[in-house]
Specification:
Largest sheet: 4 strands, antiparallel
Number of strands: 4
CATH class of the largest domain: Alpha Beta
Oligomer: single chain
CATH architecture of the largest domain: 2-Layer Sandwich
CATH topology of the largest domain: Alpha-Beta Plaits
Shape: elongated
Radius of gyration: 20 Å
Structural class: alpha+beta
Helix content: 25-40%
Length: 161
């Protein structure tokens, strides 16, 4: 699928809604210099084109039980397409896996995992290995503190694509 052509208004709008998707069309219109109805049309077009995939609430970990965050590097035994597809499905369906990247280097996948505690993480990893025999090994780093968390992609606002 070809990338949607974004003009400077689209780019500005995307940066604004990544920062706060709850802003009203009126508030966004003030910042983008378009009418509220034009903002609504653009947002609908960006959603329909798949540029905006979803809206999500960002929670404060301290308010919801202070989960422990783990950075996990996975190595697989074989990189056969069907085995990788099975592992990708498992990772995508696992609620505790916040992010999963297929990467180059020593590891094949790098994961961001959030669980209530180390016991829950250990149980999750035992299940991962039991249900995915192609996982050869994994290494884990425990996050000591949260410095920055986000999913925003900086969209260059100058120039058209």
């Amino acid at each position: 699928m070809a990338a949607m052509k974004l003009d400077r208004f689209d780019r500005r709008l995307l940066n604004l809604v990544q920062d706060d998707a709850d802003q009203t069309a009126e508030r966004l219109a003030e910042q983008v210099a378009l009418s509220p109805s034009a903002i609504q049309r653009r947002l609908r077009r960006l959603r329909e084109a798949g540029v905006i995939q979803r809206h999500a609430a960002v929670l404060d970990p301290r308010q919801v039980g202070k989960p422990t965050f783990f950075l996990v590097s996975l190595q697989v035994e074989r990189e056969r397409p069907e085995l990788l597809a099975q592992l990708r499905r498992w990772l995508a369906e696992c609620a505790q896996v916040q992010q999963a990247f297929y990467v180059t280097g020593e590891a094949d996948f790098v994961l961001v995992v959030a669980t209530p505690d180390t016991e829950a993480f250990d149980a999750l990893m035992l299940r991962l290995v039991a249900e995915n025999p192609n996982v050869r090994r994994f290494t884990t780093n425990v996050a000591l503190s949260l410095v920055k968390r986000g999913l925003a992609i900086a969209v260059a606002e100058d120039g058209d694509e």
